[in-house]
Amino acid sequence: MAVLGGVAAAIVGAAGFGAYALVGGDDGGGDDGSVSASGDGENPGPKRTGPPTAKEVRQTAEDFLDAWSGGDLKKAAKLTDDPAAARKALAGFREDAYVDKLALAPKKPAKAEVSFGVDARIAYKQQREAWSYDSALTVTRAKSGDAVVRWEPSVLHPKLKDGQTVKTGAAETAPIKAVDQSGQAITKEDHPSLTGVLADLRERYGDKTNGTPGIETRIVDAKGKDTGTTLRTLSKGEPGTLETTLDLGVQQAAEKAIADKDKASVVAVKPSSGEILAIANAPATGFNTALQGSYAPGSTMKVITGAMLMDKGLADPAKQHPCPKFFSYGGWKFQNDDKFEIKNGTFAQSFARSCNTAFISQAPELEDDSLTKEARDVFGIGLNWQVGTTTFDGRVPVQSDAQMGASLIGQGGVRMNPLNMASVSATVKSGQFKQPYLVSPELDDRKLAKAPRAMDPGTASELRELMKLTATSGTAAKPMAGSSGDFGAKTGSAEVGGQKKPNAWFTAYNGDIAAAAVVPNSGHGGEFAGPVVREVLDAG
């Protein structure tokens, strides 16, 4: 345990707001009375109200940082709106994170917020490590009228959330060296889109490889459980090798395909096995939409709806099928894009042109749970996928009336992500759902999800023909132009409330690679998501 002792020296800058350098101190320091930073040495007047003044913000922050850096944690805690929580957290920062030296450098206040630099030293056993970062505090008005620091864990470190603390010690799991199918190393520096995935893989599989844990300063939850966030590494440990299903050639193509987009996600899988070949997001370090997103998939859902209609004998590619400009169901009037219609056309023509009413017109013949069953029982959507990392596995809820009609074209309550829709195309290509996975289930005896039934062979064959037609002469023709071999595609444009433009979707396969992409708030799927998928397919 680190012991802080000594005194704090204030180094005041030109503005009178300076840096506080800890060379020690104990946890006593202050008396048991209340501490106010807002008296300014004047006779007390009426209880103050309203937001703290600039002077109060400055003085309160100065007093709090002075007390904290000087090791007088009791005084520092009393300068907050939650002394008990603050004192416990400040003590934990010293004792559990093993911080034995601390210098705090306040910056110019921005209204009630004061940013400050932290220069600390971690002293764990024989190891000493410098640790620097920026944090911030907010000054608020207490019920007493005093100006106090609003206590929140992020005062200690900006990455801390409620209930979390910092701990230094041996990591719970060893670091990993993730490799692709050919043994090439995969790093977050080279592939920032995989940063979160790599961290998750370490937490799941670090103890299943041949590595040894390092010494780290990490964020833990209220129960002391590791959250997977490392703040400082004192010694790296020895990484163990973890084989993944990724293909760096495809991964690099996926990252390049979305590099110029503000927001986009793409996933590629291998239809014959379910192996995930690539995962990419833009922005690279943002939320992992590719695996965890939950978006309405728009007309790409017609792949599943089409399979259901053909399974039930409600559609035949070669036979005449209605595609009117409008169709009303459940009290809602549905229409096609640009209000087009296909007179005396076939279901194949309606599928290739993505005719909404061709699908919704069959709603009166369906049960409310028909689409849910098809999605789950044939395509594996909504089952508990055991991918080897955190995923959202799709949702096709049972709906009725207009919502059920909307779900047939990928709106309503239907939610998917690129992983789900890449799997849909892969299922069409192989004729059977093969749960996508990133790490071999043999490593940890995971049981991969299995769909209750394979796709009807006749339906599978017809669906491949429909997707081929869409890719050669339908809405997907432009991005798929020049493709050769066994390929097919489907476009989607999902309307989202509050957005000026729809989310663009595209799912396709070519040979033994299937991919899907979403480009939010962009436009038509063929124009914005199609080129992304095509670039990934060409790399397979």
Structure, briefly:
By secondary structure, this protein is of the alpha+beta class. It is 27% helix and 22% strand.
Structural overview:
The chain has 540 residues and is of the alpha+beta class. The protein folds into 3 domains: 8-38 and 49-158, Roll (Nuclear Transport Factor 2, Chain: A), CATH 3.10.450; 176-244, no CATH class; 249-539, DD-peptidase/beta-lactamase superfamily (Beta-lactamase), CATH 3.40.710. It is 27% helix and 22% strand. It has helices at 54-69, 73-78, 83-95, 195-205, 248-257, 289-292, 302-311, 347-353, 356-360, 370-377, 401-407, 418-430, 457-473, 477-480, 525-528, 530-539, and strands at residues 8-11, 19-22, 99-106, 113-124, 127-141, 147-149, 165-170, 176-179, 215-220, 226-235, 240-243, 264-269, 276-282, 326-329, 332-335, 487-494, 503-510, 514-519. The chain has a 6-stranded antiparallel sheet. Strands 13-12-18-17-16 form a 5-stranded antiparallel sheet, sandwiched between helices. Strands 7-9-10 form a 3-stranded antiparallel sheet. The radius of gyration is 29 Å and the shape is elongated. Residues 1-42 have low confidence and may be disordered.
